[in-house]
Amino acid sequence: MQGSANLNLMIKAARKAGRSLVKDFREVENLQVSSKGPGDFVSKADREAERIIKEELRGARPSYGWLGEETGEDAGEDPTRRWIVDPLDGTTNFLHGLPHWAVSIALEHKGEVVAGVIFDAAKDELYYAEKGLGAFMNETRLRVSGRRNMIEAIFATGVPFGGKSTLPATLQDLARLMPVCAGVRRFGSAALDLAYVAAGRYEGYWERGINPWDMAAGLILVKEAGGFIGPVREGRDIFESGSVIAANAEMFEPMCKILRQPA
Ligand code: LIP
């Protein structure tokens, strides 16, 4: 795909941050056995990745706004455009030496995500999409899955940790969905969950209580791969509510019906 200059810039930044994280990821395995553990090291790796991305993106587009997991919000001179960045989505996996984490970068224009890049550096899988131009993984065009029957469908979600208030609702979602589908996965990276829906690896994904940087790039990937997205509670804004349902055309309505049932 012949992407825009902005998309190429996002890809460059994601690859650069990904390289830095891969180096650090190799170190994490050694640190697992130390008494202090890899916690501090990983937060440093995370911050360094955001620094690299910010330097690339803001260096080239100084007027755009910024929303990053590590450095927060920073309005630019151009109020219509902002980068939404998670330098390391799947931090817990990274911390435990599990090779399932990604860099996620989105560009928002007038409140709409218009480009997204998710880089799974450990597997060298680069996902990218731009409004109207389709979604890709490396050189391959992505298409959501064509499965139509819920009983054959695989879904993914995130189960809240640390006593988050969304835990009871998520457990109820699982109790409702698990008996009627082929399985529910919990891989620990919202960005990659969405990229996998776009890639047709599973039929749908939902999660409650996540942040815009976890999902922004993934949302455009799903849309550009022919999928559907919506909030868990009908009518709510996805970013504001932090809840999302993403699925192929066939599974979207049935998922909404199940997940939107009253408690
Ligand atoms: C994490 C997600 C994970 C989700 C967590 C968290 P982080 O992002 O991607 O799948 O369940 O709530 O948001 O903190 O690793 O960037």
Bound molecules: L-MYO-inositol-1-phosphate
What proportion strand? 25-35%
Q: What is the number of E strands?
A: 13
| Integer average pLDDT | 95
Q: What number of domains?
A: 2
The succession of helices and strands, N to C, reads HHEEEHEEEEEEHEHEHEHEH
Strand order of the largest sheet: 2-1-3-4-5-6-7-8
Number of helices: 8
Query: How far apart, in Å, are the first and last alpha carbons?
Result: 44 Å
Largest sheet: 8 strands, mixed
CATH fold topology of the largest domain: Fructose-1,6-Bisphosphatase, Chain A, domain 1
Question: What is the radius of gyration computed over CA atoms, rounded to a whole number of angstroms?
Answer: 18 Å
Write the CATH homologous superfamily of the largest domain.
Answer: Fructose-1,6-Bisphosphatase, subunit A, domain 1
- CATH class label of the largest domain: Alpha Beta
